[in-house]
């Protein structure tokens, strides 16, 4: 019987290496692939959402399905099995991008059509997904986020929902929502406050700027700072070094939940405020949201995105197309725009 259970465990791992997760059935995911690493007792989830690198509904549904299957597999494993894992890592297969946040195209559509229920349903999906991460899937595991590139809005919240954030030096993270008169409503305030306190959390959210990984590491938001191109190795090194302290780490996480609890109800209450604020956005606000939506377009089709060392940035000229903004402007990418060059009286006279 022991041999049979170990054989089943090996089949489960084999399925994960092929991008499949096995409980009672095999599932092929379209928005990410999975891999099991027996050396570190870790499951890697490599996200690649399409057609845009954002939290679309398909990605959210598939990640929730993965969470459920992993929970079922863990809790129904045989006592003699070597299958149980200790770590779940969320990473990205898209060069230069971790995740660019909520589905802004869906946001725009719901706001214009006054479909607040549809927008709330989407937000609740996000909340349930992130809260399962916060609670470690109700399993004795550690969740890790490996950020290699840009993590904006909901993408940053996804990273924050994990126990540990490992980021490469050139990575950039932030909440651009204030640029279109909104705020990150899927747990940003709660998660940042638990890490660095409410005053600094509010400063980050209200600035609308994108911070470098180095800045966030110095603030205490990021746990491990890796050199560019060394994120995977840094993650593996972290897992190896902390496997011996797994029991202590689990205990500390339980204490953190007692001292700084993040409940599903509180997150739902914040979503209600977020939906109400979203429905009050003006056409001017929506036009500003449109500029950020360009970041979520497919890279090969986007005219507002340039590629520099695999890090995506907007062209400065695109921010000057936004009307009625105050200069100097700090964009969500941390760029300083000193003036609106369209308003050049000398050029008009010529």
The helix/strand series, from N terminus to C terminus, equals HEEEEHEEHHEEHEEHHEHEHHHHEEHEEH
The average pLDDT score comes to 82
At the third CATH level, what is the topology name?
2-enoyl-CoA Hydratase, Chain A, domain 1
Number of domains: 1
What is the distance, rounded to the nearest whole angstrom, between the alpha carbons of the first and last residues? Answer: 88 Å
- CATH architecture annotation name: Alpha-Beta Complex
Care to describe what's here?
The structure is a single chain. With 350 residues, the chain is α/β, with parallel strands linked by helices. It is built from 14 helices and 16 strands. It has a single domain, classed as 2-enoyl-CoA Hydratase, Chain A, domain 1 (Alpha-Beta Complex), CATH 3.90.226.10. The strands form 5 sheets. It has a 6-stranded mixed β-sheet with strand order 3-4-5-7-9-12, with helices on both faces. A 4-stranded mixed β-sheet has the order 6-8-10-11. Strands 1-2 form a two-stranded antiparallel sheet. β1 and β2 form a beta hairpin. α2 runs parallel beside α4, α4 runs antiparallel to α11 and α6 packs across α7. The N terminus and C terminus are likely disordered.
Give a nutshell description of this structure.
The protein has 350 residues and is α/β, with parallel strands linked by helices. The protein has helices at residues 2-17, 57-75, 104-112, 116-134, 154-160, 188-196, 198-207, 213-219, 231-243, 246-259, 264-279, 283-293, 316-319, 345-349; strands spanning 20-22, 26-28, 32-37, 42-47, 87-92, 97-99, 142-147, 150-152, 164-168, 172-174, 210-212, 224-226, 305-308, 311-314, 329-330, 336-337.
């Amino acid at each position: 019987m022991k041999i049979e259970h170990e054989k089943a465990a090996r089949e489960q791992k084999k399925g994960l290496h092929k991008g499949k997760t096995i409980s009672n059935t095999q599932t092929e995911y379209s928005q990410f692939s999975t891999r099991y690493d027996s050396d570190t007792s870790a499951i890697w989830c490599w996200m690649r959402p399409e057609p845009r690198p954002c939290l679309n509904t398909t990605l959210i549904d598939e990640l929730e399905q993965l969470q459920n299957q992993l929970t079922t597999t863990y809790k129904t494993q045989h006592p003699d099995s070597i299958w149980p894992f200790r770590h779940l890592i969320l990473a990205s297969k898209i060069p230069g991008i971790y995740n660019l946040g909520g589905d802004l195209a869906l946001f725009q559509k719901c706001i214009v059509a006054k479909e607040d229920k549809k927008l709330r349903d989407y937000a609740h999906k996000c909340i349930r997904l992130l809260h399962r991460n916060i609670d470690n899937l109700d399993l004795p595991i550690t969740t890790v986020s490996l950020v290699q590139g840009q993590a904006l809005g909901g993408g940053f919240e996804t990273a924050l929902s994990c126990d540990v954030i490992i980021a490469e030096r050139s990575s950039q993270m932030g909440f651009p929502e204030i640029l279109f008169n909104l705020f990150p409503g899927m747990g940003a305030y709660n998660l940042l406050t638990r890490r660095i306190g409410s005053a600094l959390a509010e400063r980050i959210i209200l600035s609308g700027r994108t911070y470098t990984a180095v800045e966030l590491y110095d603030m205490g938001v990021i746990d491990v700072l890796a050199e560019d191109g060394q994120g995977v190795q840094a993650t593996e090194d972290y897992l190896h070094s902390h496997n011996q302290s797994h029991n202590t780490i689990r205990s500390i996480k339980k204490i953190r939940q007692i001292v700084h609890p993040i409940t599903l109800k509180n997150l739902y209450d914040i979503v209600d405020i977020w939906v109400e604020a979203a429905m009050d956005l003006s056409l001017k606000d929506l036009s500003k949201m449109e500029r950020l939506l360009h970041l979520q377009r497919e890279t090969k089709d986007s005219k507002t995105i340039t590629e520099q060392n695999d890090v995506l940035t907007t062209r400065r000229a695109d921010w000057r197309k936004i009307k009625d903004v105050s200069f100097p402007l700090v964009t969500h990418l941390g760029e300083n725009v000193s003036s609106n060059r369209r308003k050049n009286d000398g050029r008009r006279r010529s």
